[in-house]
Amino acid sequence: MRYRGIFTLTAVILIIIVTSKFFMDSFHAHEKAKEVIGFYQIHNIFISEPKCSLSKPCPPDSFAFSIHSGAATVVGPKICFDGKNIMSHILNNVGPGLNIVVINDTNGVIEKYGYLNMITGDSGQILAYLKDIKPGMIVLVASYDDATTKMTDEIRETFVAMGSTLIGSLNHRDNWVFAGRAGTKIKSFYEKLLVSDEKTNVFDGWPGMVKVGGCFPRTVDDT
Ligand SMILES: *[C@@H]1O[C@H](CO)[C@@H](O)[C@H](O)[C@H]1NC(C)=O
Fold first, then answer.
1. Does pTM surpass 0.70?
2. C-beta of 112 in contact with ligand 1 (< 6 A)
3. Does the CB atom of residue 114 touch ligand 1 within 6 A?
4. Distances (CA, A) of 189 to 64, 94, 97, 115, 192
5. 26 lines ligand 1 (CB under 6 A)
6. How remote is the CA of residue 108 from the centroid of ligand 1, in Å?
7. Among 222, 208, 221, which residue's Cα sits nearest to residue 77?
8. 187 C-beta closer than 6 A to ligand 1
9. Among 60, 27, 75, 12, which Cα is nearest to 208's?
10. What would the pLDDT profile of 86-132 be if each residue is shown by its tens digit?
C-alpha cells in the first residue's frame, strides 16, 4: 500500500513536469511565431501597394506624399499624405492662394490644414499662421489660381526657412508645389514652379498643373 502511494506521487510529479515542459515549449513556439509574423509585417511594407499614386512604396522611415497644384480657377489642387487625400476639389476644402497641410514629422499626425487666401486674405494673418508652425513640422503646399496678390517678402522668407529656393521667383498666377520642413533651411528636393507665360500657358491666362511627390523622411539628419 505504501509503495503504491509513492508510485502514485511519482507519477503525479512526472505528469506535472511533462505538462509544464509542454506549456513552456508551446510558449517558445508562440514567441517564435510572433517573430516570424513580425518579419512578414516588415516585409509587407515593401511589397504593399504604393501610396499617394507614387510608382513605388516608401521605406518605413518616411511618409509617402504627393502634391498637385490647381489648374487655372477650374480644377482645385490636391494634397495626399501617407495614402490619404487631405485636401482636394472633391473634398471641397481647397481655395485660392496657398493650400497648406502641416504634419508632425515624428508620428505623421496632421496638425492643421487649410488655405491661405493670397488674393483677398490678410497678409499679416497669413504671416502669423506661417510663423506659428513649429520647427520640425512637415509642410506641404499647393498653389491655386494666384498665390502672389497678398504675398510679402516676409511671407516668402518663412518658406525659405522651410527649404524653398523657388518662392523668390513666384509671380502672378505661377503654379507652385512644395514640401519642406519648418525652421530647418535645408534645401528641399520637393519643389516645382510652373511659370505663367502667355506663350506657353495651356489655359487662357494660367499655366497647367504642376505636381511633385516622393518619400518624405521622418526625422532630420543632424549630422
Ligand atoms: C510631434 O509629436 C510628438 C509626439 O506627440 C511630440 O513629442 C513632438 O513635440 C511633436 N513635434 C512637434 C514639432 O511639435
1. yes
2. no
3. no
4. 14, 24, 22, 23, 9
5. no
6. 10
7. 208
8. no
9. 75
10. 999 999 999 999 999 999 999 999 999 999 999 999 999 999 999 99
